[in-house]
Amino acid sequence: MKILFVKKAFTIIEVLIAIFILEVGILGVSSFFASGFKIIKNARTETIATNLGSGLLDETLANSFDNIPVGTVARQKYSPNLGDPFYNYDKQIDTTYIDEYLNNSVTPTPMKKIVVTIYWTIGNQSKTFQIATIKASH
Amino acid sequence: MKKNKALTLIEILVAMAISIVIIAAAYEVYNISYKSYKKNYAMAELSQNARIALERMTRDVRQTMEIMTDLPENPGAGTPPSSITFQDGHSYWTDGRIQYLTYYLSDTNLYRKTTHHTFTSPCETAPASTWVLSSARDALGQPPLFCDSEDKPRAEKITNLQFWGTSVVTIDLTVSDGTNTYTYQTKALGRNVQ
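Structure tokens for the assembled complex are given below, as produced in the milestone run.
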């Protein structure tokens, strides 16, 4: 009888390589879950920062035009109390006069641009959120 | 002739042991994946609820012309209430309807309730043109009737809700599913408050 092919077993090296490749595949897929976890955490801190920022903007807008000081309210803790849920967030408010082309103006104009910046870190990554509005004197 | 050779018992046992280990490992990977999926889902759901609740409340508070609930200036000045009632600015500016909105917690659900006041009885079917301010009084000095036209849950899993501040309302809420707890805060200025 004519022999068409020789039955040959896998060597141990081949089997090990196969298992190794399988392992890499499985670990690769499971790392998606870790990054999904990170993305959700990121989204949460971003939502918190967005709400804090727009809140600060509203708080600033509650003042009359003349009572909003031009200049920078230097970066500081949103809440100075350790243990406060927002302890890890910093705030900064920049107010400038702007001209009719919305460019910053050194001389007083009847319009002020208010920029609120929220800083926070997630892991070792620092992040910022900025929101701005314009207030006109009546 | 090809000779068929059977496997020995030892070979079968070794093969079975190896396949059990592989299947167990594969199941473990599936199990961990499923657990982390569920955890991610739960956390995303919490964020979503908090975001929806804050967005709805700030949107309504910003349009109001009068906040009815007495709010302390800050949490140190008094216990901040967990519900707030104010005049609906959107309905007033769009078609002149005078009605009030209340956001309150029932169990862990955030409800948004719409209330109107009228001197026309019955209150439930009184046309919107007869709706009046809650401070209105009739010729005899009597307050108007009032009833709710809508009362629906808007967000869930909210375990704590607080309001404080007079001109700028601070909204502070905590969402929790028992495992994860997150606190959110924002401030809203009632732009039409006199």
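Strands of chain B lie at 84-87, 100-106, 109-118, 131-132, 145-155, 158-164, 168-176, 181-189. Chain B has a mean pLDDT of 92. Further analysis is deferred to the final report.
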